[in-house]
Amino acid sequence: MRNVAIVGTGYVGLVTGVCLSEIGHNVICIDIDQEKVKKLKAGKLSIFEPNLEELMITNIERGRLSFTSDHAEGFKDSEVIYIAVGTPQKTDGSADLTHIEQVAVQIALHAKRDVIVVTKSTVPVGTNERIKEIIHEYLVSDIKIDIVSNPEFLREGSAIHDTFNGDRIVIGAECEHAATIIEEINKPFQIPVYKTDIRSAEMIKYASNAFLATKISFINEIATICEHVGANVEDVAIGMGQDSRIGTKFLKAGIGYGGSCFPKDTNALYQIAGHKDYSFHLLKTVIDVNNKQQTLLVDKAKKRFGFLKGKKIAVLGLAFKPNTDDIREAASIFIINRLIAEGAGVTAYDPIAVKKAERVLRPEVQFMSNIEKAIHGTDAVFIVTEWREIIDFPLKKYVELMNRPIIFDGRNCYSLNEMKKFPIEYYSIGRPIINGKTTNKGDTHMSVSVGKWTKYKLILE
Ligand code: UDX
């Protein structure tokens, strides 16, 4: 078992620290945010991640996991130091490496024994070599520094599960000795290891995220075409996915990808790729498609109503995906900003992301404590995050509570057959409209059978 230090207690750092302590290593997590460290020492998380808090408390109690704000204390006995600090996006789309560089200086000043420095943060190709240069520039002790790139592939909301069940662990190293130690550290996870050079490892992370983002933008484009030709994108995705070369995963059409990784990493790779003779056109299109996709529901609603001024609209789901309270680059932000700019009144509901959303969204938004309150008296509902609670919400309640039941579903939460049983006007992504008056090949006049709805209302009353 090894003595390991992790710098940065965000998603990646904390999950790595907790999971490495769970498999038996002695782990000390370092963060310059003293308030955060105080909370973590008391077993409290500032992020929502299933099972993370329980596992963290267990390992603190076992004496294998501790926290500090002091780099000297953190590095004193460490044989391996993981860098897991943020690499936020700069205004030009490239990755900001300030935090990484600061950690490199701290390692140079405080490491006291030969150490392997492992970068978990997503960094542009060549950054690990730069880290080594900085460490050597400021190094005060006579010690040996080895550098390893070990990119992280976990997903928010299933981070613990992914750490124990990942498809591969990528280790990019310049010497076999360092690679072998990192391989041994990870052995208890029993996940296949792929060893390569540092630059290729750095590239694997960007290429993987860019490829997954491409799959999403591709299926979203197919969804738009499906709407024009009257096909159903869900059936198309299933039929495509049965070809094992394509695979079924990441072919769910919706309102695009958000979160802390895909938007940032695709922009960063686009920046890295570009030079005077080359531009990554395909990736640029993937990004553009996603930007457009994120506010598609607003376009659909405008087409349906003609204008949104004065309309009361409920937005259900604010997190960028279910099982997280993360709203970074979430479609909800872009949608709500546009709705407000169009003059609509917005109510919003999310099971856990409201606190974070309140800090980011405009003060005009009315946050509600449940779905019923959010949709009551509204002219339209936008489904933005496919929380279980939203999927399971009884459809008849939309009919009872809304001014007139019109749903714009950005996540295809409901089966079309189920929806047909209700007098709800239903617009989803890449699928036929329900209860809208359609003409040839799925084109829509956006007028509904008012009679059906009124009849249903009367039965309910
Ligand atoms: C992603 C990668 O999956 C992970 O490997 C990497 O390390 C970090 O980035 P994460 O951001 O947690 O993880 O979320 P993920 O589950 O991949 O979803 C990203 C976004 O894509 C979400 O907004 C999701 O709604 C969207 N998505 C995903 C789709 O729209 N369709 C899909 O088929 C899959």
UniProtKB/TrEMBL annotation:
The active site is at 261 (nucleophile). NAD(+) binds at residues 31, 36, 87, 122, 156, 264, 328. GO terms for biological process: polysaccharide biosynthetic process. The keyword Glycoprotein does not apply. One of its GO terms (molecular function) is ATP binding. Keywords: ATP-binding, NAD, Nucleotide-binding, Oxidoreductase. Substrate binds at residues 153-156, 205, 250-254, 258, 321. Coiled coil: none annotated. It comes from the Bacteria. Pathway: Nucleotide-sugar biosynthesis; UDP-alpha-D-glucuronate biosynthesis; UDP-alpha-D-glucuronate from UDP-alpha-D-glucose: step 1/1. It catalyses: UDP-alpha-D-glucose + 2 NAD(+) + H2O = UDP-alpha-D-glucuronate + 2 NADH + 3 H(+). Its EC number is 1.1.1.22. Belongs to the UDP-glucose/GDP-mannose dehydrogenase family. This is UDP-glucose 6-dehydrogenase. The chain holds residues 1 to 461 of 689 of the full protein.
